[in-house]
Amino acid sequence: MGKIIAIANQKGGVGKTTTSINLAASLGVLEKKVLLIDADPQANATSGLGIDVETVEIGTYQILEHSNTPKEATLKSSSPNVDVIPSHIDLVAIEIELVDKENREYMLKKALESTKDEYDYIIIDCAPSLGLLTLNALTAADSVVIPIQCEYFALEGLGKLLNTIKSIQKIHNPELDIEGLLLTMFDSRLRLSNQVVEEVQKHFNDMVFETIIQRNVKLSEAPSFGESIINYDATSKGATNYLHLAQEIIKKNS
Prior knowledge:
single chain, alpha/beta, eight-stranded mixed β-sheet, 12 helices
């Protein structure tokens, strides 16, 4: 039975897509079969794994509409053992289209029923909002990884997200678990980065991953080549960090 993990935070620029791509690729390298679902209209996870967004005809939009099956939307990525359900700018319209539908929060959950058993892990890259798309992802997910940037405003909005998760657990998905809080863009030279790490670990102790994703130029460069950090530079600090994260998740779920 595959585990569905949503990567969510309504704050933009915290490393959601970077984490989705590189966690999926790291799990793939560790011989897990992975499906990455791009649930963000910006489609950065799609292009970041070497798929031309302009050529996407069937993707997350069609799955949420139930006009196509996940199998029909699945493409091979540039990373070993990683398949992708791509996104496209048309996904913007889905929030409006789903508003009047019955059980609109369950569209993704229902669509993935046929696919869940085919993968070890299904990773959902969420949009930077708490709209219907993210709600669908969290209702479909078994757990959620919350990336937190090691910067001043890091904890701002975290309370709001945790409240959203709490209400989803209460109303739509009692099984939803917090996989962990992931500290990203850490710069050991900055006092502020270290303070944020201390603060988050003090407040959330066991909920925080041991792995911390360090600021790394290669991590920023990789998507422009349509590759994960593992393919782009397996010796970089970023690759090491994400492999450690994948190992931590596998260990936690074994």
